[in-house]
Amino acid sequence: MSQPPSVNYAATSARPGWDDLPTALREALKVALGTDIASAGTSVGSGFTGGFAAPLRLADGREVFVKAAPDGLHAYGAYQREAEIVPVLPRAISVPPIVTTAHAVEDGTAWFAVAAERIDGRMPGTPWSPADFALVTANCEVMAAALTPSPLPGLESIVEDIDGGGFPIDQFAKLLAGDDEMPTGFQPWLPQRLAELVDLVALYPEALAGASAMHSDLRPDNLLLDQVGTCWTVDWNWLALGPAWGDWVGLLPLAHHHGIDTTSAVAKSPLTSDVPPEHLDCWVAAIASYMLVNLDAPPPTGCTPELRRHQRLMGWTFLEWLAVRRGW
């Protein structure tokens, strides 16, 4: 039986240290924070980019978490988007508040940094436990309620993103037509289910329509559980309009892989209890299709090879979740 790769989400990135940042940016942050930087922690190992991301202890006793990147990396725009979004999110959502931002140019390269309050927390889902799954599920329900209908103007819908080619979901169709080679390492039944998967994905205009603002990149390394059980959500740079259940359902396949009873969870949750099963399956199939794109290609500029292992893990577990639900 095929098995997915193992991914250590605490060690997927390759980030610079504080001393590797340009002097101009470090000085700009010092001015923006209004105090000296007493010490810098080690850059976190989560994520798939080469952007700086580490805690800083300030001379006035505060602790912040700073992310920074140069123009030319995907993280440069992503960090700016997060700095715009976080301050306007509903207060019901637990998200580390933005403290300040800083810009600098050194040797002709523009840099951006964003500092947020540091949360003393841990990543859930490594592996998923029933207790962590319950905390994250409750958080997703609070987020969905606060973001439905979307309080944020100007968001593009997932359906529009798919229609415009920004979220490619035609990989199963390409495999069925023979336009791409069948990926290795996946379930042996995949070739026989391609037609059904293509039909599932085709339901997206109805299945993925919605007026909720979705995080759209919710995964274990974008969540933090603190010591009192609060679930914090980070990395708000992929927001889109879609169904209120979309973010939570995107966590279920990996949770199922770790032994969580997601069948009962779907039946009980107010997010999904009255959603047509085909709609949930459409979303999971769409994500699986997306994950199978460029599996063997070099990672995009600024991303680590672990991104491709992540894709394989997600693609495999999403397909397996569908197999259980659909009796494949």
Helix content: 25-40%
CATH class of the largest domain: Alpha Beta
Major sheet strand order: 1-2-3-5-4
Rg: 20 Å
Secondary-structure arrangement, i.e. CATH architecture of the largest domain: Alpha-Beta Complex
**CATH topology of the largest domain, which one?**
Aminoglycoside 3'-phosphotransferase, Chain: A, domain 2
Overall morphology = globular
N-to-C span:
14 Å
H/E element order = HEEEHEEEHHHHHEEEEHHHHH
Q: Structurally, how many domains make up the residues?
A: 2
Count of beta strands? 10
Q: Per DSSP, what share of the residues sits in E-state strands of 2 or more residues?
A: 15-25%
CATH homologous group name of the largest domain: Aminoglycoside phosphotransferase (APH), C-terminal lobe
pLDDT under 50 segments (min length 5)?
none
Discrete helix count: 12
What can you see in these coordinates?
This protein is of the alpha+beta class. It has two domains: 18-117, Phosphorylase Kinase, domain 1; 121-326, Aminoglycoside 3'-phosphotransferase, Chain: A, domain 2. Helices cover 37% and strands 16% of the residues. The protein is built from twelve helices and ten strands. A hairpin with a 2-residue loop joins β4 and β5. The protein starts with 22 loop residues before the first helix and ends with a helix.
Set out the fold topology:
Blueprint: H1 23-33, E1 37-40, E2 52-58, E3 63-70, H2 74-85, E4 98-106, E5 109-117, E6 121-122, H3 130-146, H4 158-163, H5 171-177, H6 190-201, H7 204-207, E7 212-214, E8 223-226, E9 231-233, E10 240-242, H8 246-249, H9 252-257, H10 262-268, H11 277-291, H12 306-326
Antiparallel strand pairs: 1-2, 2-3, 3-5, 4-5, 6-8, 7-10, 8-9
Helix pairs in contact: 5-6, 6-11, 11-12
